[in-house]
Amino acid sequence: MLPSTADAQTLPPVGLIVPAYFDPSTDQTDWNRLAAAASQIPLIAVMNPNSGPGTSADPSYTAAINVLDGSGGSTLGYVYTSYGSRKLAAVERDIARYFSWYPIDGIFLDEMATNATQSHLKYYAAIRDYIRSLYPAAIIVANPGTSFDSGFATNKTADIFIDEEDTQTNLDATPQASWTQSFPASMFAEIAVQSSNDAIEVTALSARNLAWVYSTTLPLNPDPYAALPSDFEQEVSALVTVNGMR
Fold first, then answer.
1. For the chain, which end, N or C, has fewer CB atoms within 10 Å of the first or last residue's CB respectively?
2. Is the pLDDT assigned to residue 208 strictly greater than 60?
């Protein structure tokens, strides 16, 4: 489950936010590994049947979500927004399908715009409000994948923002924007792909103003999220250690 929102002076537990873009009907093992991890640390898994919910419900996802939930984890449904240019009706249709078909805990908004123009703030606020109208307690994660304007955080268009999603080399060389230090760590996440060692990487990321991290040794191409990395359990253990020192 999610840790409580803390003020900017506290250090919340560090959890994993995992793009779980693998089908439980063919990869139940990795979903079971997620459930095992969720019993040890906070964990959010992002389901993505077909660049969104697809055209019909899949019972294998429902079963996997229920197992993860029983272990203390949360599942979000993937929805892309095309950096603020996708039609709201299409975004809302995907959101409604997720909540109608699956026992999810919230929505993952990919391809978030980075510039906080009035039109973009209005767009993402409308999505937030629509999600809340369907499920008031929903977790909303937005993914610009790079530095973005503080207006989105100030206007609380999401609960968690992914301020970097890149290869380990690029991510480690990119500091967080200075303005993020004025907000709680619980609002930010970072994801590293093509990492050399996932346990070392998440330990390093935990020193930043973040409460959510993920690292995978899988290469950027063709898809770093098609499976969990072989050292996933070491990554989990590293965060158990980090949280024990907070």
1. C
2. yes
Q: Cα 10 to chain center, whole Å?
A: 21
- Omega within 30 of 0 (cis) for the link into 222: yes
pLDDT for the residue numbered 7 = 42
What is d(CA 132, CA 137) in angstroms, rounded to the nearest whole number?
A: 7
CB contact set of 150 (below 8 Å; sequence gap of 6+): 116, 177, 179, 180
Q: Counting beta carbons within 10 angstroms of the beta carbon of residue 102, is it exposed (0 to 12), middle (13 to 18) or buried (19 or more)?
A: buried
Look-up: residue for tokens 């793009």? 19
Q: Is the pTM of this model over 0.85?
A: yes
Please give the Cα distance from 97 to 211 (Å, whole number). 29
- State residue 89 phi and psi, 5-degree precision: -60, -40
DSSP state string for the chain: -PPPP--TTS-PPPEEEEEE-S-TTT-HHHHHHHHHHHTTS-EEEEE-SSSSS-SS--HHHHHHHHHHHHTT-EEEEEEE-GGGTS-HHHHHHHHHHHHHHS---EEEEES--SS--HHHHHHHHHHHHHHHHH-TT-EEEEE--S---THHHHTTS-SEEEEEEEEHHHHHT-PPPGGGGGS-GGGEEEEEES-S-HHHHHHHHTTSS-SEEEE--S-SSS-TTSS--TTHHHHHHHHHHHHHT-
